[in-house]
Task: structure prediction
Amino acid sequence: MLRLFPAIVKKNDGRFLVRGGNQVNKENAKLERTVLVEFPSYEVAQSVYAGEDYQNAVVHIKDCSFRDFVISEGL
Result:
C-alpha cells in the first residue's frame, strides 16, 4: 500500500501536505502517523476514495492496519 498510494495521489493531481515525520499526540490522539493529502476538490477526494485504484490498494492493509480516515472540505 505504501508504494501504491503515492501513484494514486499523483494520478489524481493530489499532493502530500503531511506524510509522517515527528508527531506529538494531544487530546485523545492515538495513531502514530498522520498523512494529509490535498486534492483539487472535495469531489475529487471522494472519487479517489471510491475509485478502483484506491479500493484495490487498500485491500492489502485491510486486516493489518488500524486507520482513522477522513475526507474533509478545505478552505
About this structure: The chain is about 30% helix and 10% strand.
